[in-house]
Write a structure and sequence with these properties.
This protein has eight helices and no strands. The protein is mainly α and 186 residues long.
Length: 186
């Protein structure tokens, strides 16, 4: 972590709101990008973004410089996304009166049916297949393949061993190969 970031964090920890706003400005694109990848819905991602930075604001004094600030922020984002999705799932069940499994709830918008191109069809199939993955496998897949994080960084973010991350990624890839077997030669 560079000295400028350390200084901003220390100033924010002492109550300097301008320093906190500069921290937000430094990381806002990355948090919003991750939120969109995890939730695939703009309004939900914006809500998650606000919730994440509210948590950061409330807990900045607890940051102990034991990890990179970016890692701490990503962990808050991923954990908040898990909680957000669980709240949305419960709300959906109450609203609809349905008793659905987690895999029944889509985290991507319906594809635009007016422009069904082959590549769009494949992309939609991939997103639906990723959506059907269990939550941790889906998160690991997104962090590895869409965020381009290394296995060791994902392990730190999710607070588990690298072997566990590899297992989640392996199982996710197995499920995706099965779900996407019809699209192999497209």
């Amino acid at each position: 972590m560079d000295q400028a970031t350390v200084s901003l964090i220390r100033e924010a920890q002492s109550g300097d709101s301008e320093a906190f706003h500069r921290l937000v400005a430094t990381y806002d694109f990355q948090v919003m990008s991750l939120a969109m990848k995890l939730l695939q819905h703009k309004q939900d991602a914006e809500d998650l973004y606000q919730e994440v930075f509210m948590k950061v604001f409330m807990n900045i004094r607890n940051f102990r410089f034991e990890s990179d600030f970016f890692t701490w922020l990503y962990r808050i984002t991923v954990n908040t996304a898990f909680n957000f999705k669980n709240r949305m799932r419960k709300h959906y069940r109450l609203e609809s009166g349905l008793d659905q499994d987690e895999d029944d709830l889509n985290w991507i918008p319906d594809p635009d049916t007016s422009s069904v191109e082959n590549s769009r069809e494949v992309q939609t199939a991939v997103m639906k297949a990723v959506d059907k993955l269990p939550q941790k496998q889906r998160t690991v897949f997104i962090l590895k393949n869409l965020e381009n994080l290394k296995i060791k960084d994902i392990a730190v973010l999710l607070d588990c061993g690298e072997g566990t991350i590899k297992k989640y990624l392996f199982r996710a890839m197995e499920k995706l190969r099965i779900d996407l077997r019809d699209y192999r030669y497209v």
